[in-house]
Design goal:
The complex is a heterodimer of chains A (about 110) and B (about 110).
Chain A lengths: L3 E4 L2 E4 L5 E7 L5 E7 L5 E9 L2 E4 L6 E3 L9 E3 L8 E8 L8 E2 L3 E5 L1
Parallel strand pairs in A: 2-11
Antiparallel strand pairs in A: 1-3, 3-8, 4-5, 4-9, 5-6, 7-8, 9-10, 9-11
Chain B lengths: L2 E4 L4 E4 L4 E3 L1 E4 L5 E7 L5 E7 L5 E4 L2 E4 L9 E3 L8 E8 L5 E2 L3 E6 L1
Parallel strand pairs in B: 2-12
Antiparallel strand pairs in B: 1-4, 3-9, 5-6, 5-10, 7-8, 8-9, 10-11, 10-12
Classes of the chains: A mainly beta (about 110), B mainly beta (about 110).
Chain lengths: ~110, ~110
């Protein structure tokens, strides 16, 4: 009963480097999403997916790419890291309708220096 | 647009005190409303939810009522414990875009 698994838990990048944050869920949820959490700003939606092969932009998509080749996995790619992308990143999934509520991963703390 | 405004923290209470964290929202249509809790170093956990007007969500002694006339979803608990210390987020989702408030940090002292 793993739920939503995110890796790595911590990461330090240099400006301009690229990396992929991994997210996997074992609940057969169709909907998955990525959020970033910054102090005093709550969580902001980066990208989301309503099923394999379908992705869409959220509130703050710039600088990030996603793909959804399987139901289980939804990786988030930082193409060229910037200090403004220093944040805590959460992956979430849900079943069925928006009223079902989300299951969150434990987060990835990313620092860009 | 869709947005959530919740009371700023931090909130500090003594054990067994009454808790209210205010949350108001702006939305088109009829969103579902949620409260999530985040303990240190962890992801968000769903605390309670309500999917239509006048519904009351409840869990672990916490309650919130979906008030469409005042566009509010205030979180309440009659007697808080030290273990309730966490950050609480109000959220709404009319569609595939869940919007969160900024979060309210609660500290309960023994």
């Amino acid at each position: 009963n793993a739920g939503v698994t995110q890796t790595p838990k911590f990461q330090v990048l240099k400006t301009g480097q690229s990396m992929t944050l991994q997210c996997a869920q074992d609940m057969n949820h169709e909907y998955m999403s990525w959020y970033r959490q910054d102090p005093g700003m709550g969580l902001r939606l980066i990208h989301y997916s309503v099923g394999a092969g379908i992705t869409d932009q959220g509130e703050v998509p710039n600088g990030y790419n996603v793909s959804r080749s399987t139901t289980e996995d939804f990786p988030l790619r930082l193409l060229s890291a910037a200090p403004s992308q220093t944040s805590v990143y959460f992956c979430a999934s849900r079943a069925g309708t928006p009223g079902d509520g989300y299951t969150f991963g434990s987060g990835t703390r990313l620092t860009v220096v | 647009g869709n947005s959530v405004t919740q009371m700023e923290g931090p909130v500090t209470l003594s054990e067994e005190a009454f808790l209210t964290i205010n949350c108001t929202y702006t939305a088109t249509g009829y969103p579902s409303l949620f409260w999530y809790v985040q303990y240190p170093g962890e992801g968000l956990q769903l605390l309670l939810k309500a999917t239509k007007a006048d519904d009351k969500g409840s869990n672990k002694g916490f309650e919130a009522t979906y008030r469409k006339e005042t566009t509010s979803f205030h979180l309440e608990k009659g007697s808080v414990q030290v273990s309730d210390s966490a950050v609480y987020f109000c959220a709404l989702t009319p569609n595939n875009d869940m919007r969160f408030g900024a979060g309210t940090r609660l500290t309960v002292k023994p």
